[in-house]
Design a protein that fits this description.
This protein has 67 residues and is α+β, with helices and mostly antiparallel strands. The chain has one domain (2-66). The chain has helices at 2-15, 21-30, and strands at residues 42-43, 49-50, 55-59, 62-66. The strands form two sheets. The protein has a two-stranded antiparallel ribbon. The longest helix is centred in the first third of the chain and has 14 residues, at 2-15.
Length: 67
């Protein structure tokens, strides 16, 4: 899931004109609401990713989010 999110975010930045690693970083740092499989995410000024964390448990063959 994290690999998919990372690849998607980088590809989106490239599609919007980022042509270098620095440009991708700058693009990601300026986006307040990045879409991810785990919910909205954003990078803080120090480069730390902020997004909701949750646990998933499997019960009787179904994925259940643990609150």
């Amino acid at each position: 899931m994290q690999g998919y999110d990372a690849a998607k975010l980088v590809l989106d930045a490239v599609r919007k004109g980022a042509a270098s690693g620095e440009a991708v970083r700058d693009h990601l740092l300026t986006q307040p609401d990045l879409p991810s499989l785990a919910g909205p995410a954003a990078f803080g000024p120090d480069g730390t990713l902020h997004r909701p964390l949750f646990l998933i448990q499997i019960k009787r063959g179904r994925f259940i989010q643990v609150n």
